[in-house]
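Narrative summary of target 7.
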Amino acid sequence: MNTFKRLTASLLVVCMTSLSVPLQANAAIISTQEAAGPAASAERDRVIDFLKRDEVRKAIEAQGVDAQAAVDRVQAMSDEEVQQLAGRIDQMPAGGDVLGILFTVFIILLVTDILGFTKIFPFTRSIR
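Modeled conformation, tokenized:
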């Protein structure tokens, strides 16, 4: 029994000593995309792929908006806006209510023009 007590005491001394050793932590700055995770970038990619479809691109250009400007604007959107737009794409029937999406993109681009963040439409004046 005396040997068991000595072994237990020795083991406890080693364990308590190892707990007092300071541990090193590493930290680094991460980008917003890394913090948001793959879900946000997947939604953004899905909306951009939708805007690059031929019928959508033609309808956007028929409204007087450059297709690349629309894609650039989607890149500049917040994650919440992209999720809302992607949700609208999911709710559309298989044939697609392209006009609803185009109207949404048009309104977003129009508002950003009026607020002075972009200059896409020549008929708007910035409030800045």
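The mean pLDDT is 79.
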